[in-house]
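[Q] Does anyone have a clean structure-token version of this?
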Amino acid sequence: MNLRGRNKVSAEFNMSSMTDIVFLLLVFFMISSPVVTPEALDLLLPKAKGKTTSQQNVAISIDKNNNVFINNEQVNKSQLELELQKHVENIENPTIILRTEQSVAIQEAVDIMDIAQRNKYKLVLAVKP
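[A] Here you go.
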């Protein structure tokens, strides 16, 4: 008497469906992840408990060598106000995000805040949460 079962279970594992799922997840996260700051320089921001959530129109960055950038374009400090006015001339209620390195003297940031105050621009200080 032969009592063996006719249905044999295969011990093989097919990885093709798993790689498809991983690939689709990778594409989904790459597309859905927000691009936070496309015009940002690599700066070491000061820490704070808040975070920058405001819509930005113009980004001003100051690196550790006190070089000033408007949207990744280096600008002379004496021409900063004129260049800033050119960047926001067609924008209603412009918002400026200010990024400074931790090592930059506070006077540099205050000078830019003063320019924003004189021209009635909204200014947001970027920090690392």
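[Q] Thanks! Anything notable?
[A] The CA atoms of residues 44 and 101 lie 5 Å apart.
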